[in-house]
Amino acid sequence: MEIPDSTLILRIAKNDYSSYKHLFMRYYSRLCVFVFHITCDMDMAEDIVQEFYMKLWTDRNKIKIKGNVRSYLFTSCRNAALNSIRDEKLKIKNLEMIGRDQLPEEEITEQEDYLNALERCIALLPERSKQVLQMFKLEGFSQKEISEKLNISVKTIKNQVWKSLQFLRSCLNTKNSYLSIFL
């Protein structure tokens, strides 16, 4: 007869390592697969589940699960996975900021000059074209969404974006690598 999860948790709280191993063996693989579907990285998924189980053992005397143990395990691992993804994105963002802060002074000046020139060129666009370009490139609206918001056909939106980009290219009169980032 299989020992219920709730009994295993009660025994774990009383320092029963064999119950801990039993719970580990029962759910480890399923939790790894579940977390993999969130992270898309099996190594990361295994690390997250292993860390969760280590914390479960470390905090065994504090565990108070009132509901379904299985749900608790999956919810805890899901939260740990989401936190891990958030932390990873934050690390990447911080590294990018550090990298940008360490650009040579002349490259920073070049970027600033380019952005100033780009702003001046954008200011020369007709108001409607400027609005469409901003909604499409900066705010991330799709052409269909812009069409619906401004009550203009999608074809008109496509034409305005295309003409605006052509104008900006000729206005800047450069093939600068920064241009490709914006355009």
Describe the structure.
The protein is mainly alpha-helical and 183 residues long. The chain has 9 helices and no strands. The relative contact order is 0.07. The C terminus is likely disordered.
Task: Produce the secondary structure layout.
Elements: H1 5-13, H2 17-39, H3 42-58, H4 69-101, H5 105-123, H6 127-138, H7 143-150, H8 154-172, H9 177-182
Helix pairs in contact: 1-2, 2-3, 2-4, 3-4, 5-8, 6-8, 7-8
Question: What keyword list fits this structure?
Answer:
mainly alpha, 183 residues, disordered C terminus, 80% helix, single chain
Shape: elongated
How far the N terminus sits from the C terminus, by CA atoms, comes to 66 Å
Mean of residue pLDDT values = 84
The oligomeric state is single chain
Order of secondary-structure elements: HHHHHHHHH
Provide the low-confidence segments as ranges: 175-183
In short:
With 183 residues, the protein is mainly α. Helices cover 80% and strands 0% of the residues.
